[in-house]
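User: For documentation purposes, I need each entry recorded in a consistent format: the amino acid sequence on its own, followed directly by the corresponding structure tokens. There are two entries in this batch. Please keep commentary to a minimum and don't merge the entries.

Assistant: Recorded as requested. Entry 1:
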Amino acid sequence: MLIGGTTLTRAGMRSVLAEYEAEIVAAASSIEPLIEQLGVVDVVILLDDQALPLLLQQTNDQPAILLISQELPHPMPQQRAWGVVSTDAYPQEIWASLQALQLGLCVLSPSILAQIHSPPQPEPLDNQLSEREHEVLQLLAEGLTNRQIAQRLIISEHTVKFHVSALLGKLDVSSRTEAIRVGAQRGLIIW
């Protein structure tokens, strides 16, 4: 079963699969007209991710899913065989993926797998803290109270409380002690 894409891309995929004598029982630009037929197919090939959410809601019949995409789907399918093959995959890669899915395996193209092994890195924490927040964290680690920090930095005690609150949020902690521990672990405090 082919779902999504344009008439031309569905025709192209039919042509690719015809080389391997694969049977396409149905094809459409969206999943709605094909929902009744999900129970008679082993694998659904999605030419885009538009139909994925609705397909994942179908709980009675769970054919394997092969998504032709450049990115991992969100959410990823669970409790069924599934795969993501790059849009620039060779016909034999698509055919091998379909065979693996019919055996109950999961399949990922190398370019897709690389997205799992190297997810986007969050901005380093020291770049997220302002210079003043660094100073406040250092003084917290030295054991100073809000009043003492205010006197040392020549700012109001209210401003110190604001900086401490911002620090707790950025460090994702709920206490000054945790902030010091996390700051020390990440090398933000000089001892």
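Entry 2:
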Amino acid sequence: MVQVKNSSNVVIVTYGRDALHRHVTDTVGSTVTDRFFSTDWQLLETKLGSNTVTRNVWSPVYVDGLVLRNRDTDGNGSLDERLYALQDANWNTTGLVNASGTVQERYTYTPFGQVTFRDGSGSTLSGSAKARLRDP
């Protein structure tokens, strides 16, 4: 367990890790965020309090092959957004599409793995609004 304190020595956030050193909890005030992982370290679900805020489905073919991600976009406890992941031959996620096949975000990578985020039409974004799949 790691705590971050302000200059008055008041705890701002507490981070918890499991036995495999995965970041599994954040506590800010009375709000607890829990993360649940598979044995392959894939992020399966994130809960904010008792509400599930994301749920990921991973491919049995490749350990980092995301199939889909469900997300609660408005904080009401309902997973109201489903996005499907598209990958290239190296299993890099290259885009997210909705159920009707409309591209929501695209991703391009340099040879060393630096990602550029793009919206559905290809315009560059400063960061991803959709792809928070892993712990920061």
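Summary note for entry 2:
The chain has two domains: 1-34, 38-127.
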